[in-house]
Amino acid sequence: MSEKTWRGIRKIAVIGAGAMGAFYAAKFFDMDPGSVFLIANGERYTRLKSGGIVVNGKRYDIRVKAPAEGTDPFDLILCAVKHHQLDSAIEDMRPLVGDDSIIISVMNGIDSEKRIEAALGKGKVLLCAAVGIDAVRDENSVTYSKEGKLVFGEAYNASLSEHVLR
pTM of the prediction? Predict the structure, then answer.
């Protein structure tokens, strides 16, 4: 990844490998295969480790880590789970978060950011809306025809913070 573009984002964790998580994990992997990890436990860990993810027909063998494996903090953590999985995802994120970590939730709705911030620390979560993406998951495969975009920032963007600029 370009230093100019990514400003210190070297290590990215994606929690949730459904349509949104797999889509963004593949995009990060295409930019820098060494930067991205899928975070998973149990059967999902085993399935992702052995089968990878498939996005628009291309297989991606992205590194998979269990939260309990121990690691240095991640620079960026992308939360892409369903609402009923959020509490578990927050616990999975806990050992991945450091002082300078940025967390972005691409979940539907507006309360996930508040819940993540309450659990993992103020100032780490950027508000985010995914706009125009049409990714759909079927089994272990994700397809899309429109990439859309992520619109993110802080609740008060009078001036752009270092987290937003990164």
Answer: 0.90
